[in-house]
Amino acid sequence: MLECQSVTRRFASFTAVDSVSFRVEPGEIVGLLGHNGAGKTTIMRMITGALEPSSGQVTLDGLDMQRHSLELHARIGYLPEQLPLYPEMTIVEYLDYCAGLRGIDNRRERKEAVQRVVYDTQLEDKLTSPIQTLSRGYKQRVGVAQALLNNPKLLVLDEPTNGLDPEQTRHMRDLIRRLGQSATVILSTHIMQEVNAVCDRVLMLQQGRLTLDEPIAELADRAVLHVQCGDPK
Ligand code: ATP
């Protein structure tokens, strides 16, 4: 369904992503694992169509991301690493505003979409709270909620547990597993434990190159991964 074919992205003379190829099948939860600067965000931005590959191709459902970006945009939900939230808006106001940006013009449809994503992300108890009063965990859930507004078949989550405490992390991982029952998910992380806990498959990225593409169930010796990734957790 999602395919990256020899995708390369250069910034001036620096190659951030170097000839990366992989497929993500419908219904999978795939973890893009790598250190800071490995190229995870750059790949995710190319997957969502926000950034054009220097060479190679990203396709979704067989359609080229750059040539069909408007059509494909509607099938993708994206949680960027730094989501601009409007601190003085309440959760409901913010999600209603985001729904408008997604082209849900009809007021009743917007209300239904907001109700659906609030329910999916368990935000009911904070609906009228201004965003600036929320914990980091709630803010991330608002970020996931906005990504769900157009009912995407592909969810792209850039470091969804970054900065969360253990309880918030547990909650976010449960949420992603639940969402993975009805959508295909690709998430980035630098924590192998997260991939183990949530994902069906791991893609390991090192200095812009894909060094591993393996179903979690088939990883014979996960300790090898800790060594390769240098992850102490
Ligand atoms: P992190 O975990 O820190 O978010 P990452 O794996 O997501 O890291 P990227 O943000 O994709 O890594 O960055 C990969 C490399 O590309 C880094 O060296 C970064 O400095 C560089 N890079 C990313 N975007 C740009 C840009 N717009 N211009 C120049 N260099 C960039």
Write a concise keyword list for the protein shown above.
233 residues, alpha/beta, 6-stranded mixed β-sheet, 4-stranded antiparallel β-sheet, 34% helix, globular, binds adenosine-5'-triphosphate
Explain this structure.
There is one protein chain. The radius of gyration is 18 Å and the shape is globular. It is built from eight helices and ten strands. Helices cover 34% and strands 27% of the residues. It has helices at 40-47, 69-73, 91-101, 107-120, 136-148, 166-179, 192-198, 222-229; strands at 2-11, 14-24, 29-33, 55-60, 63-64, 76-79, 154-158, 184-189, 201-206, 209-215. It is an alpha/beta fold and 233 residues long. The strands form two sheets. The chain has a six-stranded mixed beta sheet, with helices on both faces. The protein has a four-stranded antiparallel beta sheet with strand order 2-1-4-5, covered by helices on one side. A hairpin with a 2-residue loop joins strand 1 (2-11) and strand 2 (14-24). The protein binds adenosine-5'-triphosphate. Adenosine-5'-triphosphate binds at residues 11, 14, 16, 34, 36-42, 81, 190.
The SSE string, one letter per element, is: EEEHEEHEHHHEHEHEEH
Radius of gyration: 18 Å
> How much strand content do the residues show?
25-35%
Tally of alpha and pi helices: 8
Total number of beta strands: 10
Helical amount: 25-40%
The backbone outline, from C-alpha atoms, is globular
> Hetero groups bound?
adenosine-5'-triphosphate
Biggest β-sheet: strands ordered side by side in the sheet: 6-7-8-3-9-10
**Main beta-sheet annotation:** 6 strands, mixed
- Which class of secondary structure composition applies to the elements? alpha/beta
